[in-house]
Amino acid sequence: MTFSRVAIVGLGLLGGSIGLAMREHLPGVASAGWDADPAVRERARERGLVATIADDPAEAVRGADLVILCVPVGAMAQAAHAVAPGLSPDCLVSDVGSSKQGVAGALEQALPNHAIIPAHPVAGTEQSGPDAGFSSLFHHRWCILTPPAHAEAAQVDALAAFWRALGATVEVMEPAHHDLVLAVTSHIPHLIAYTIVGTASDLEEVTRSEVIKYSAGGFRDFTRIAASDPTMWRDVFLHNRDAVLAMLGRFTADLDAMTSAIREGDGQAMHDLFSRTRAIRRGILAMGQDDARPDFGRGDHDERQGDEAEPPPQS
Amino acid sequence: MTFSRVAIVGLGLLGGSIGLAMREHLPGVASAGWDADPAVRERARERGLVATIADDPAEAVRGADLVILCVPVGAMAQAAHAVAPGLSPDCLVSDVGSSKQGVAGALEQALPNHAIIPAHPVAGTEQSGPDAGFSSLFHHRWCILTPPAHAEAAQVDALAAFWRALGATVEVMEPAHHDLVLAVTSHIPHLIAYTIVGTASDLEEVTRSEVIKYSAGGFRDFTRIAASDPTMWRDVFLHNRDAVLAMLGRFTADLDAMTSAIREGDGQAMHDLFSRTRAIRRGILAMGQDDARPDFGRGDHDERQGDEAEPPPQS
């Protein structure tokens, strides 16, 4: 079983990247799409994110054998209701949401008569919108499928083959376990980054201009993550609340321990932690999940591109 | 006033980069160096980090009119004592430490008869050791000087000119204010990164292999920071304790507020924070302090280099 027509609902970073990757890797498969925002549809047409942009969600999915909902987690139910009138009875419905238990429940409720296999490609950048997508976003990235117990094996295999064609490596996982794993590897890091950037911008003793100027000492990496789409992330925390709170509790306890070590001048406790965290970094590089070059290869700032990357004024 | 002979004590990332940058930008200035580790001295000779590598610290600084101590903050006093027998009476002593009040006190105590102007180039990567340095590390980066009240203006100017020649933009700051600014922009981000990587590697419900595999969702950026030199960072937290604890208190309070927002499902509070943090990112890009390309330009992983960056196995 393979798909002959794929419809993408929501044409931002993820939806646009799926369309562009399909054009590159699956040229024989028809693509159609829709976005709730007319300006996004217009831009998606100009960039050719999918072959056909419909002005109506039901029209976009008509004749499709795979529909992928690429909207914030909190908008999944609404998107499912919007496409329902146009869905073929045997069309598989999937998504790209960052939390899976909540999405599965919402989609099953909205589309009780359709096969649903949620998915989560663990890939992204801090950019969003119809200009953000690119065809290689999924290369060497994992895509996690969380099929319900009653899912047809042929459909799971077909969806896995689709993601592999786009460059991803596919894993199958229980939805609850997915939500716990991603709480650690993605949701908590985002929450921490948003929070520290907020803390820094609220200080009275240190100006915002100083925070910006001296950000190269570590802070700037957090600001990149904290530039991610606010609506998408609000929805993640609303929909993966329990796993996020559980992991946050562990992090807070560990931070309290480090705070005590600093207060008490316990250099050994610090050195122990700071040494063993290097092993995880080595694992990530060995698995090809990050750039091994120092500073992600951005060390030579003379090679930087883009109008915004002007050097600071010489004093 | 300019320097004709510069001695670098400690030949890791910072010391090595200063030597390489001098060779490129100040070819007329003599350079000498020493490191406490014989293996580092040997490697520094092979890479030509400085023109002359001495086997004795006093010998390394003989005839120098500027000595820069590039060792962890906690080793500054020891390094100062080691070079003291060779120091010319009019030699200026400086450093590159990440906290300035503690270093100033340690150096003034160790070298009571010498002019001391502490400095902090806000630049670095997660790498350390004699192979980590590169000549453009200070390009478009700030270097903060924290001269004592009694410092000679001509010496401050000469040290500023030295750093400008290496590509940095120089600012002068009170030591106490430096320590507060850097607590926010560098020390707390490192502490948080070390802690969350530690939390993730201690979980029982999520395996270390899973944390590594799915790190592209945000976690991997923290692991880069948490791969920084453990001894250097232990010393930073031991020596900038008060400012770090003060800033940590603010961050913890803000994190508690976000935890409550998640618990209570307060989407508005989340969306407000996640929206306003984007302004800081825009400021950092406009000031040329980070790479404006999505994902630091590492989005296309097919272009990655290095033996360690192998793609994951296809399942």
From TrEMBL, chains A, B:
GO-annotated biological processes: tyrosine biosynthetic process
Enzyme Commission code(s) on record: 1.3.1.12
| Domain Prephenate/arogenate dehydrogenase as annotated: residue spans | 4-292
Q: Which terms in the Gene Ontology molecular function aspect does this entry carry?
A: NAD+ binding; prephenate dehydrogenase (NAD+) activity; prephenate dehydrogenase (NADP+) activity
Which residue intervals make up region (Disordered)?
Answer: 289-315
The record's listing under SUPFAM superfamilies reads: 6-phosphogluconate dehydrogenase C-terminal domain-like, NAD(P)-binding Rossmann-fold domains
Listed InterPro entries: 6-PGluconate_DH-like_C_sf, NAD(P)-bd_dom_sf, PDH_C, PDH_N, Preph/Arog_dehydrog, Prephen_DH
Domain of life of the organism in this record? Answer: Bacteria
Q: In which pathway does it act?
A: Amino-acid biosynthesis; L-tyrosine biosynthesis; (4-hydroxyphenyl)pyruvate from prephenate (NAD(+) route): step 1/1
Q: Which PROSITE patterns match?
A: PDH_ADH
Family stated for the protein in its record:
Belongs to the prephenate/arogenate dehydrogenase family.
Q: What is this protein called?
A: prephenate dehydrogenase
